[in-house]
Automatic annotation (TrEMBL):
Lineage: Bacteria, Thermotogati, Deinococcota, Deinococci, Deinococcales
The protein's name in its UniProt record: Bacteriophage Mu GpT domain-containing protein
A family per Pfam: Phage_capsid_4
Domain of life: Bacteria
Amino acid sequence: MTVQKLRMGYREAALRGHIPEASVDKLTMMTILEAGIQAFYKGYYGALLDEHLQKSQDLRISNREGWDMALSAQDSVLEDLTGIRWAHRQLETLSTSDFLLALAYTRDAARKPGYAPFESELLKVARTRTTNNFKPIKARGATNLLHRFLARRPEATNVQYTGFIGQGEFYSGVNYELAIGYTWEMYTNDEIGEFVEAMEELGEAAARTRAWSVIDAIARMAPRVPLLNGEQGPTIQNIQAIKSFMASQTVDGRFVARTMTDMYLPPAWDSLAYVSLNSQALAGSTTDGLQPNINPVYRAAAPHNEPLMAEIFTQGPEGNPSYNDPAAGYANLSDKDWVALDRNARPIEISYLEGFQAGPRTYTKIPDTVELNHGSFENHTYAVKVGDVHGATVSERTAVVIAQGT
């Protein structure tokens, strides 16, 4: 579909009295912007959006009245798409589009625990919270009760009170934004495809940013364990060393034991870790020449590929390859470092501003001139902005470590 064919279709509809003549140019542009927005969410949600596009289509075909009611009931989920919904209602007089209802269904599904838009296993294990403002948030999970267990209360005696020491650190949500413009020159040149493709890539970048937040928190805050032969990667000996470190820690004079349940690996080590964790016997060794020596880390943890982690550890915050600020906690990390954690302790936390739990929002900039087909007054540009607000932290440092070489 080209710009001119799209506009000609709306002009024909106006001549037939289906839409007002004055709305032709605006509908043309809003249709292009909606195509870009749909591509953005395709890039962000991937197959999940496809699944709900099919669900929306099936409902529309089988029960159009129910489809209309379902869309009307989703106002609170689609409040950032007010302008697009105006155009959408106009378009419904000419054709059908299942996108808005599909997006509402998708946002509902994305609120479920464990959902991650980007292929990041670390993001999937993070504890989630919702905030109403940008004030500092105190991380959960780091408050130490003076009593680790409930106290016995003998009959007819008063209840015993305990105290607590709050050790959680404060962190804040951050507003992440990018915009893509659709220029008058693109409109004049009949270009839609490149704009749509760029919006899909922007969706992938938004998904990647959420994973980046969690990995960034680990890079800055997680303790690092230097291994004697760390340059060899997750060998049986190195995995055992990390297990031993996590199982025997001291915090404020209190002994803390953590179990390594998961390992997050850069591409350099994923195959080696699989062999180390899934070999039941040590290679070339036996006991008394009869029984093989058992691998002490056999199935000790679940391995996960985390390629983005290697990129972030190497490049530093926001992909700056020259970044090496010790104060920010990124110094001396590399693409060979790997992460181990105890997911039962829920050591990672990510918070979302109210309204952003299911993902980012999109905002459209439409012309502020009467001559809509010439774009805005300043620079002849229409635009779609993407915004997301979230922050992440390590809330329990005894339960996540970065394994490093010497």
